Automatic annotation (TrEMBL):
InterPro entries: ASL1, Asl1_glyco_hydro_catalytic, GH. Keywords: Signal. This is Asl1-like glycosyl hydrolase catalytic domain-containing protein. GO terms for biological process: fungal-type cell wall polysaccharide metabolic process. The keyword Signal applies. Residues 32-269 form the Asl1-like glycosyl hydrolase catalytic domain. The keyword Kinase does not apply. The lineage of its organism: Eukaryota, Fungi, Dikarya, Ascomycota, Pezizomycotina. One of its GO terms (cellular component) is fungal-type cell wall. It comes from the Eukaryota. It comes from Aureobasidium uvarum. Pfam families: Glyco_hydro_cc (PF11790). Residues 1-17 form the signal peptide.
C-alpha cells in the first residue's frame, strides 16, 4: 500500500448513503482508545467486520465487531509452522465468531508494506495451514491480497499453479486441483474507473470463484474533493455489484480529522449525516502517513476502509 497525503481543499458535503452490510474496517493500529470508541461505541456498526493484518483481535474491538484473522507474511519454517492454524483454531474454540480468514498481504510487493512471499512458499503454507482451517472448522478462505499492479495478477496465477504442482506431487490426495479459496481480496489505489476495471478483470479471470472483497482502496494522489467524489462513486458501486461481498477503505486521512472527529467521507461510510469536518493537513499528519510504509502494526493511526 502507499499513501500520499492529498492536497487540502474544501469540498461539497457528501450525502448520506444507505447502510451497507459489506463495509468493514481496516485497522492499521489504534491512535487512541477514544478514536476506537468512534467505531466501537456505534451500535450501527455492531455485526460489521474488521481486520488488522494479524491473527489475533484488537483488544478494543473484541466481541464488538466480527474479526477476520490474517496471516500477513510467511512463517520462517513454512513446511512445518502451524502457528496461524493453531491461533485461529484457539479463537474458535474460545467461542470467537470466526467465519473468514485472509491470506498474505501484498505478497508480490517487496517494499512499502508488501510481505514479499514467493508463490511457491505461499502455496505450501496454504496447503499446510489454510485448507485445514476450512476442512476442520468450515472457515471461508480469502486468497492472498496482491497489489493492484500487473505483477499482482502474475503472482496470483503462479500461486494457483504452485498449488496444482503440490497436488500433482502428492498424488492429488485432496479434492481441489489447486489452491482452495472462497473469495479473492483485491487492493486498489487510483481513480474510480480504474477500480471498476480492475475488479472486472478479476471477476473475468476467476470465473470459478464467485466472490471478491476489496480489502484496501483509496483515491491515490487526490485532492479532498476528488477523494469525496471517489468515495461517493465507489461505495455505491461496491454496494451494488453482486460479486462484491465485503470491502474496507484504506487510510485514516479521509475518515477522521486529526482530533479524532469523523470527516464527511467517514460519515458517509458510517451512514451518518455529513459533519462538514475536513481533515486539516499538518506536518504531523503527513509524517504519520509517510511512516506507514513497511511498518504494519507500528503506525499510530486508525483507519476505516
Ligand atoms: C464511548 O462510550 C463511552 C462509555 O459510554 C463514553 O465515555 C465515551 O465518551 C464514548 N466515546 C465516543 C467517542 O463516543
Ligand atoms: C458471525 O460472523 C458472521 C460474519 O461476519 C456474521 O454474518 C454472523 O452474523 C456472525 N454470527 C454471530 C452469531 O454473531
Ligand atoms: C473431499 O470431499 C469429500 C466429500 O465431499 C469429503 O468427505 C472429504 O473430507 C474431502 N477431502 C478433503 C481432503 O478435503
Ligand atoms: C479457478 O480458476 C483459475 C483460473 O482459471 C485456476 O487457476 C484455478 O485452479 C481454479 N480453481 C479451482 C478451485 O478450480
Ligand atoms: C462477473 O463474472 C460473471 C461470470 O463471468 C458474469 O456473469 C458477470 O456478469 C460478471 N459481473 C460483472 C458485474 O461484470
Ligand atoms: C455525492 O453524491 C451525492 C448524491 O448523488 C451528491 O449530491 C453530492 O454532490 C456528491 N458529492 C460529491 C463531492 O461528489
Amino acid at each position: 500500500m502507499r499513501y500520499i497525503a492529498p492536497a487540502l481543499l474544501v469540498a461539497a458535503p457528501l450525502v448520506a448513503a444507505t447502510a451497507s452490510s459489506k463495509r468493514g474496517l481496516c485497522v492499521v493500529s489504534t491512535e487512541t482508545s477514544q478514536d476506537d470508541a468512534i467505531w466501537t461505541n456505534d451500535t450501527d456498526l455492531s455485526g460489521t467486520w474488521y481486520y488488522n493484518y494479524a491473527a489475533v483481535p484488537t483488544p478494543d474491538y473484541k466481541n464488538k465487531l466480527n474479526f477476520v484473522p490474517m496471516l500477513w507474511g510467511a512463517p520462517e519454517d513454512p513446511a512445518n509452522d502451524m502457528s496461524f492454524y493453531n491461533t485461529v483454531s484457539n479463537l474458535i474454540q474460545e467461542g470467537q465468531n470466526i467465519t473468514y480468514v485472509l491470506g498474505f498481504n501484498e505478497p508480490d510487493g517487496c517494499s512499502s508494506g508488501g510481505s514479499c512471499v514467493s508463490a511457491a512458499t505461499a502455496a505450501q503454507v496454504w496447503k499446510k495451514q489454510f485448507e485445514p482451517l476450512k476442512r476442520d472448522f468450515g472457515v471461508k478462505l480469502g486468497a492472498p491480497a496482491v497489489t493492484g499492479a500487473p505483477t499482482g495478477f502474475n503472482w496470483l496465477a503462479n500461486w494457483f499453479s504452485e498449488c496444482a504442482a503440490i497436488e500433482a506431487s502428492s498424488g492429488g490426495s485432496s479434492n481441489t486441483t489447486s489452491c482452495e479459496v472462497d473469495f479473492i481480496p483485491a487492493h486498489w489505489y487510483g481513480n474510480f474507473g480504474g477500480l471498476a476495471s480492475h475488479l472486472g478483470q478479476i471477476n473475468g479471470t476467476y470465473q470459478n470463484i464467485s466472490a471478491i472483497w476489496v480489502t484496501e482502496f483509496a483515491c491515490a494522489d487526490c485532492t479532498l474533493e476528488d477523494s469525496q467524489t471517489f468515495a461517493n462513486q465507489s461505495f455505491e458501486y461496491l454496494d451494488r455489484i453482486p460479486y462484491m461481498q465485503k470491502y474496507s477503505y484504506f487510510g485514516a486521512f479521509p475518515l477522521l480529522t486529526e482530533k479524532g472527529k469523523l470527516t464527511d467521507i467517514g460519515a458517509l461510510y458510517l451512514n451518518k449525516a455529513s459533519t462538514g469536518a475536513i481533515p486539516h493537513g499538518s506536518a504531523s499528519t503527513i509524517a504519520k502517513f509517510a511512516g506507514w510504509g513497511g511498518l504494519v502494526g507500528a503506525a499510530v493511526f486508525w483507519s476505516l476502509l
